[in-house]
Amino acid sequence: MTSVKKDQATLELSAKEREMEQLQILLANYQLYYQNLRNFHWNVGGNSFFELHAKFEELYNDASDKVDEIAERILTLNGHPLGNFSDYLAISTIQEANSNCSGAEMVAEIIASHEILIRKVKDVLVEATISEDEGTLDILPAYVSNLEKLNWMFKAFLR
User: How many helices and strands (H and E) does the chain possess?
Assistant: First the structure.
């Protein structure tokens, strides 16, 4: 193998490793996001209770599906998805949410979480492009458009 091919193989491996790292962080972020939504679902109150209670349930069900999809993508790429909450807490850029807040504060927290998730999905997409991972490139773009639309709706809710 020539030196150029060895360097290229090392670069490709590094891109795959970077993609795997970003997928693990995305998985951790979605796990914290999911748990925060459950927390909000259980603890929301006030005039918007019925609307928000149902919406939070819809969102945590969707987040649960995405957690599974991301973990299975990691497995498909011959990785080992993190499975301990302590590991998620260590690498997630989404923090545990306080449940002692108003419905509007919960919605604002969700908007902020969506912004973090959008940035992280885009980080994964950059690495997936470099490593030519068509499977990840097929799955994740829809996450961005969905989160952006949700943020538009939640921002309208807060007006």
Answer: 6, 0
What token pair was written down for 130? 């470099």
Residue-wise pLDDT tens digits, 57-76: 999 999 999 999 999 999 99
d(CA 53, CA 2): 61
Angle at CA of residue 58, ends 92 and 43, nearest 5°: 70
Whether residue 70 contacts residue 117, with contact meaning beta carbons closer than 8 Å, is answered with: no
The pTM of this model reads 0.90
φ and ψ at residue 102, rounded to 5 degrees: -75, 165
Which amino acid, residue 98? Answer: N
In the structure encoding, which two tokens stand for residue 49, read together?
């209770």
* CA–CA gap between residue 141 and residue 159 (Å, rounded): 28
Amino acid present at 27: L
The letter for the amino acid at 12 is: E
Tokens of 152: 């538009």
Cα–Cα distance, 21 to 107 (Å, whole number)? 29
Give kind and range of the element (H or E) at residue 85: helix 85-91
CB 71 within 8 A of CB 63: no
Residue 5 one-letter amino acid: K
- Cβ(85)–Cβ(31) below 8 Å: yes
